[in-house]
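INFO  loader      accepted 1 record
INFO  loader      residues=193
INFO  predictor   begin
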Amino acid sequence: MHNYMTGLARIMAMIGGAVLMFLILLTCISVAGRVLDGVFHGIWMETNLPQFAEWMAARVGPVNGDFELVEAGVAFAIFSFIPHCQITAGHAAVDVFVNSLSPRVNRILRMGTEIAFALVLMLIAWRLAEGTLSKYKNGETSFLLEFPIWWAYGASLMSALVAAVVGLYMAAVRSYEAITGVILVWDGVEVQP
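INFO  predictor   done
INFO  writer      dumping tokens
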């Protein structure tokens, strides 16, 4: 089961990484287009090479709706990275105080943390589902590209659902570990007995 969940989390992280790389490339192209548009509309180009400047200015410029795509894509990417972070205990932790506690107390604290994470992830997925339905029903579209807003919500919802499932799985694992004292998933955070 753990291998399946880890594989699912990795796949989501890779998809999120691919989307993020696409968004970075899109942003670079859009910024370069803005810069070139400014160059070809500059006084020097319009004075010395007016026909070339006009011809080039018609062909270069920012990517239309780039910020809409970045907005939707970053939300999806963030939710895509959460399952991998959850299953590998990659969240930031301040363990100055807990290092002095017993292994049993640490297991109980980890159980509580994982349960809290699972509950929050389920809440986020639930609210995203409500938002997706709301956007679908009202037919709202983006301003420039006019794509349905619910597409972005739906993509983020799929990632949030995977994050919630992985969160529930890790909550169950840490609960079993806290109750039995048997560590099922070693991730380097556990204190050796």
